[in-house]
Design brief:
Layout lengths: L1 H23 L1 E5 L4 H17 L3 E5 L6 H9 L5 E5 H8 L8 H16 L1 E3 L9 E6 H7 L4 H7 L4 E4 L1 H5 L4 H8 L5 E4 L5 H6 L5 E5 L4 H4 L2 E3 L12 E6 H6 L2 H6 L8 H12 L5 H11 L4
Parallel strand pairs: 1-2, 6-7, 6-8
Antiparallel strand pairs: 3-10, 4-10, 5-8, 5-9
Helix pairs in contact: 2-15, 4-5
């Protein structure tokens, strides 16, 4: 009888040990409440589970984005999430604007390590920065490829943007100083109506984010910020150094996506989720398979 009790206890201890071991092999990945962040978080999680025995728990669509994810990372409640260099530098670290993308990345990487003990891994290739866009046919017909090209012909065009874009120094006033814009007319538009307005010809130019999914639907051309007025918002994984020390294999796994996603590819992925209502996990898996990463 004692022998059986002893064996049973050993069995329970083995199961408990296995359970503890399984619990340890887990990371928590978070996303902001937008399609792009869902998709990138899914890509990271799927790569981890496909290339290791680490299980992934998702905390998707956290309200407030960086303002709530950052303290949760500091508290150890989240291990990894996709962030943007410009957001980290300006919003989290509250630094002054840096326009050189490489200097911005190196700066945010260094200061996050020093201040929070978080590691920035390799950038994924796309830059979800502020931009200006035009109907592609019209832009090509007028020979407009850059902000400088646009400025030279702006007196014949109408700009549409939301109210605060016209008020912020890093918006329209700063652009006027940098490029000398002199639009025939400027219109204030609700952020959700800009694409409809340009699609219906009410305006010729709108402000946007460079990876907006609707750019493809309306066949718009994102113009080049040739003087680098807007800071870079390049996406990369941010991971707690404690988590990386525990699972050092995560760096190589997550860096498989380095340089793999172009602005145009991210636009298309966002379109699938935002307009076609496809599942972010399905879209992420499809992309990873197409790249030979799954």
């Amino acid at each position: 009888m004692k022998k059986w009790i002893g064996l049973a206890l050993i069995g329970v201890l083995v199961l408990l040990a296995a359970g503890c071991q399984n619990q340890e092999k887990k990371v928590v990945i978070a996303s902001k409440p937008m399609a792009e962040s869902y998709i990138i978080a899914e890509m990271m999680g799927q790569l981890i589970e496909a290339n290791s025995d680490i299980k992934v728990e998702y905390k998707m669509g956290i309200g407030g984005g960086s303002s709530n994810i950052q303290p949760a990372m500091e508290a150890g409640e989240i291990d990894i999430y996709p962030e943007y260099t410009g957001t980290g530098w300006l919003f989290v670290l509250k630094n002054e604007l840096v326009t050189d993308p490489q200097a911005l990345y190196e700066g945010v990487k260094s200061q996050y390590q020093e201040k929070y003990n978080f590691a920035w891994l390799d950038r994924y290739g796309f830059n979800d920065t502020y931009a200006l866009a035009m109907d592609k046919g019209k832009a090509d017909g007028m020979g407009i490829n850059s902000f400088s090209d646009l400025a030279a012909q702006s007196n014949n065009l109408i700009l549409g943007a939301e109210y605060d874009f016209y008020e912020r120094e890093d918006g329209y006033p700063g652009l006027v100083t940098a490029y000398g814009f002199n639009f025939k007319e400027t219109k204030e538009l609700d952020i959700g109506l800009k694409y409809k307005a340009i699609g219906e010809g009410q305006v010729d130019v709108i402000n946007n984010f460079s990876t907006d999914g609707l750019l493809a639907e309306y066949d718009l051309k994102v113009l080049k910020d040739d003087k680098g007025f807007f800071p870079a918002y390049e996406a990369a994984p941010v991971i707690r150094q404690d988590t990386l020390d525990k699972y050092p294999e995560l760096e190589a796994i997550l860096n498989q996506l380095a340089g793999q996603i172009s602005d145009q590819e991210m636009q298309q992925l966002n379109y699938y989720v935002e307009k076609e209502n496809r599942d972010a996990g399905e879209v992420a898996a499809e992309f990873l398979k197409a790249k030979g990463l799954l």
